[in-house]
Design a protein that fits this description.
Elements: E1 4-9, H1 15-30, E2 41-47, H2 56-62, E3 72-80, E4 88-92, H3 98-109, H4 111-120, E5 125-129, H5 137-150, E6 162-164, E7 167-171, E8 184-187
Antiparallel strand pairs: 1-2, 1-7, 3-4, 3-6, 4-5, 7-8
Length: 188
């Protein structure tokens, strides 16, 4: 994936942080995928490292994200996709992350193009699997059972159905997946 990405993570103390980490590990092992990653909702990608290269933390700190109370991740449903990074995802309602997604995308496209990008390209989700394999409707049903048994609420209800606020991290996603680690973070 070219450039870097901004990810929204659950608050560190939120129960979903450890639950989703375990779930990603479980699903990856189930499908023999070596790719493990931090549970996150991608806000934007393709950020040129030249934008932040001298001081990633100062760059991230300067971004004017909405207050924590105005950022709400609400799960909607489990989905199977065809893309490597979207093979098995939990879709997230746009409304609660529209504002933070807008701020994040402005660093890539500038203010003029953000609204169009949000309406046409922004598909907030939380990935559970990175893989080249094909998943069927039967796989989806099986994984939906696994996700629910792990304690995740796919209807976005209660503490297990999402979170408010969180932490934004900058990750150089132009490296190998196993090297994807935040180089800057900002708590909302």
């Amino acid at each position: 994936m070219p450039g870097s990405s901004l990810w929204l993570l659950p608050p560190p103390s939120h129960p979903l942080q450890s639950l989703l980490t375990s779930l990603i590990t479980h699903v990856s092992k189930h499908y023999n995928s070596p790719h493990l990653f931090i549970p996150h909702v991608t806000l934007t990608s393709e950020i040129s490292p030249s934008i932040y290269s001298s001081d990633p933390q100062a760059w991230l700190d300067a971004l004017k994200f909405p207050a924590a109370k105005d950022v709400e991740v609400r799960f909607k449903r489990l989905q199977v996709g065809t893309m490597f990074f979207g093979k098995l995802t939990i879709s997230v309602g746009k409304g609660g992350v529209w504002g933070i997604g807008s701020v994040a995308r402005e660093v890539v496209d500038g203010e003029e193009s953000v609204k169009e990008w949000l309406e046409e390209n922004f598909g907030p989700h939380l990935s559970l699997l990175y893989s080249e394999i094909e998943l069927s409707h039967q796989n989806l049903e099986e994984m939906e059972k696994v996700v629910r048994e792990a304690g995740v609420n796919l209807e976005g209800e209660g503490e297990a159905g999402g979170w408010v606020g969180g932490r934004v991290v900058l990750v150089p996603t132009d490296k190998k997946i196993e090297e994807w680690q935040p180089i800057a973070l900002k708590d909302l």
